[in-house]
Amino acid sequence: YPENPSLDSSCFSSPPVNFLQELPSYRSIARRRTNILTRDKQSSILLKPTDSYGSNLEEGLTDNLNSQSIRKYALNISEKRRLRDIQETQMKYLSEWDQWKRYSSKSWKRFLEKAREMTTHLELWRNDIRSIEGKFGTGIQSYFSFLRFLVLLNLVIFLIIFMLVLLPILLTKYKITNSSFVLIPFKDTDIQCTEYPISSSGLIYFYSYIIDLLSGTGFLEETSLFYGHYTIDGVKFQNFTYDLPLAYLLSAIVYLALSLIWIVKRSVEGFKINLIRSEEHFQSYCNKIFAGWDFCITNRSTADLKHSSLRYELRADLEEERIRQKIAERTSEETIRIYSLRLFLNCIVLAVLVACFYAIYIATIFSQEHMKKEIDKMVFGENLLILYLPSIVITLANFITPIIFAKIIHYEDYSPGFEIRLTILRCVFMRLATICVLVFTLGSKITSCENSTCELCGYNQKLYPCWETQVGQEMYKLMIFDFIIILAVTLFVDFPRKLLVTYCSSWKLIQCWGQQEFAIPDNVLGIVYGQTICWIGAFFSPLLPAIATLKFIIIFYVKELSLLYTCRPSPRQFRASNSNFFFLLVLLIGLCLAIIPLTISMSRIPSSKACGPFTNYNTTWEVIPQTVSTFPSSLQSLVHGITSEAFAVPFFMIICLVMFYFIALAGAHKRVVVQLREQLSLESRDKRYLIQKLTEAQRDMRNQPAKT
Predict the structure, then answer these.
(1) So where does this one cross the membrane (predicted)?
(2) Sequential DSSP letters for 334-353
(3) Is the pLDDT of residue 254 over 90?
(4) What is the average pLDDT across 432-442?
(5) Alpha helix (H) residue ranges in 448-575
(6) Which class for 178: exposed (0-12), middle (13-18), buried (19 or more C-beta within 10 A)?
(7) What integer is the mean pLDDT of 528-547?
(8) Cα–Cα distance between 34 and 155 in angstroms, integer?
(9) Closest listed residue to residue 471, CA positions, set 539, 526, 393
(10) Contact 227, 611 (CB under 8 A)
């Protein structure tokens, strides 16, 4: 202020101690002063000004110049240039070996950077996904990125199975290498257990090829698509014998372990972001208002949609706050009433699930008992209906139950966010549990013994002479039927609906129906359902991952066209980080559910004696202990020691201690975060307090000349 030149000296002079003690954060600053001084001493080397650039800076940074790039330092351009001069000066005094090491290290880092840039241009569907991101935001883009991840995952799974199982057989079958098949004669196996009638002779109707293609029977049953084709005990090369049963089992273990590691690795990043964003409600409002915009959007209609999405999120937050206040003001009678209502509605949900599971069980039993009838005794439609009856019932259950759950959730009086999460959780459980019900129903039929032959073989050999192949056929039918349903809904529902909404918009019924929404959770549940089928069926149908790869590639283009031309984005949009973590979490649940039936079938159910690589083993897992028995005695002792209780119990205790340590560390970090938030709040109070004092000082300075 020009009229008050003495303001600087009077108002900004050193404040007295009493004035500092009036600050709200005085005690907090005093408590943290020691830590701040220590931190300043440690970082003083990098915080030196340019005019005092001396020996401390050189000594502190010289040791790190070899390992880190200059661009990583938080310094200005002049400082970085001086660091570069130091590097060039030091290079003159180094030996030729050290100079070569530095030059090679720099060259290697530059090569890696260029390689990363090149790999980004080789990404699958890079331009398509970026175009979707620009038009519809990062939420829908994350769905297509997730679909690309599943394509790559299934491709890798197929390559693993191909390298370990298919490649040795193909090299021997087509005489590419000097090798031969090894067939070990049956040991202590009744001849009735080895009978495997693949197909009946006689006249074959023209439509039977279509049925075989859709159901995996007939000519497809004899191909390498299914488990029964690999009735080989090994492949003998010149110098060694390739153990095919061990390779077959290891391929399943490897692709399941690889899927688990890959999913966990990708989900950790999203989990960190979600953990950071689990902030207080006030900070959530600030993030939505000041940092909620998606700057990848370039389309006007998508920008309007993003505006409405942000408004919806703010309304949902306000509604959740209202529900919290309502919960806090509830009386004991209202609490008892709402919990009684929720208990009753959850009983209805449970009854719906049980009814769906029972319907799947009945459909599977009916289909398995009637599909062995001669094909000439039924017409084409009847035969196809019998074969696909479990798939049809599962699809109807997956279509009807979400509608029922969406109606029920409105009466449970939850917050909007919790309603969405609970509905999705119920739908996830429904979709994935239906596959497990189908597999366990097949398992019960396989192990149910009604005659002496069943007791002799250990499984129902009359109805399931090669039960692994028939389980693979069921997974194959589920995969094909799911693909047909996705295409049919897009072509015969979404596209005509778009035409009606576009050209018949004046009709009130069409206005109420509206355009189809591209709902991200429903589409994600659909592809996770297909991936779970692939994980279960890959052991019984080794080529199923290749079919899943082609299926997801076609689904990508179908969904892209549907999004661009027939559907509209949902007003409830998802953040990319939240979406990625949610997708991978659902996928991880599907993987865990897939491992359960596979583990039971490998370890509990006797392997088929009429087909497959495990005809000479009681169970599939028996190949592992027999292989270990061929190891040297020292290695056998090591393996038995690792798998014994004497090793498992201490290992479990160590894991528990490590887990408790990280839990305690996470609790300490959480307390630090709480203290930092309190410090931020105190600093904001300090600012308000100082502004108030400054305003009072300015007012006093203006009033002094008036009094004089």
Answers:
(1) 149-171, 246-264, 343-366, 386-406, 475-493, 535-558, 579-600, 647-668
(2) HHHHHHHHHHHHHHHHHHHH
(3) yes
(4) 86
(5) 452-457, 467-489, 495-503, 508-513, 520-540, 544-561
(6) exposed
(7) 92
(8) 56
(9) 539
(10) yes
Report the C-alpha gap between 173 and 181 in whole angstroms.
9
Whether the per-residue pLDDT at 639 is higher than 70: the answer is yes
Q: Could you tell me which of 275, 273, 280, 289 has the C-alpha nearest to residue 321? A: 280
Q: What's the rounded Cα separation, in Å, for the pair 185 and 226?
A: 22
* CB atoms inside a 10 Å sphere around CB 47: 10
Tokens 């995952």 belong to 153
Instruction: Looking at mean pLDDT, say which of 126-135, 266-275, 596-605 comes out highest.
Output: 596-605
- Hunting for tokens 């030996």 — which residue is that? 95
H helices of 66-121, where?
A: 77-92, 96-121
What gap in Å lies between CA 660 and CA 655, rounded to an integer? 9
**Residue carrying the six token digits 């001084």:** 37
What pLDDT, on the 0 to 100 scale, is given for residue 202? 47
Tens of pLDDT, residue by residue over 477-503, are 889 988 998 888 888 888 888 788 777
By CB neighbour count within 10 A (0-12 exposed, 13-18 middle, 19+ buried), where does 584 fall? buried
Task: Tokens 């039924």: give the residue.
Answer: 378
| Cβ-based neighbour number of residue 447 at 10 Å | 16
* Cα three-residue angle 566-561-306, rounded to 5 degrees: 65
Length of the chain: 708
What would the two tokens of residue 56 be? 């401390």
State the burial class of residue 361 (Cβ atoms within 10 Å of its Cβ: 0-12, 13-18, 19+). Answer: middle
More confident residue, 289 or 242: 242
Q: Tell me the percentage of the chain whose pLDDT exceeds 70.
A: 76
Residue 195 DSSP code: -
Handedness of CA 134, 138, 139, 141 (dihedral sign): positive
CB 533 within 8 A of CB 482: yes
Instruction: Give the integer Cα–Cα distance in Å for 466 and 610.
Output: 6
8 A C-beta contact, residue 632 and residue 640:
no
What count of Cα atoms within 13 Å lies in the side-chain half-sphere of residue 658? 6
Band of the pLDDT at 375, cuts 50, 70, 90? Answer: very low
Tokens at 703, concatenated? 């009033």
- The amino acid occupying position 53 is Y
Do 379 and 283 contact (CB within 8 A), yes or no?
A: no
Percentage of the chain surpassing pLDDT 90?
11
pLDDT at 45: 39
What is the tens place of the pLDDT at every residue in 15-70? 444 555 555 555 555 555 545 444 444 444 333 444 443 444 444 444 455 445 66
Phi, psi of 569 (to 5 degrees): -65, 150
What is the reported pLDDT for 564? Answer: 83
* Two structure tokens written together for 440: 């366990």
Task: Please tell me the distance from the alpha carbon of residue 615 to that of residue 609, in angstroms, as a whole number.
Answer: 4
Query: Which segments within 337-483 are labelled E, that is strand?
Result: none
pLDDT tens for 203-238 read: 456 667 777 788 887 788 888 888 888 888 888 888
CA–CA separation, 466 vs 416, rounded Å?
50
DSSP letter at 543 equals: T
Give the model confidence (pLDDT) of 336-356 as tens digits. 888 898 899 889 999 999 998
- 371 has pLDDT over 70: no
Selection from 97, 226, 163, 139 nearest residue 540 by Cα: 226
> Residue 322, Cβ neighbours under 10 Å: how many?
11
Listed residue (141, 219, 234) closest to 184, CA to CA: 234
Q: Per the structure block, which two tokens stand in for 45? A: 């080397």
Buried b (16+ CB within 10 A) or exposed e, 596-616: ebbeebbeebbbbbbbbbbbb
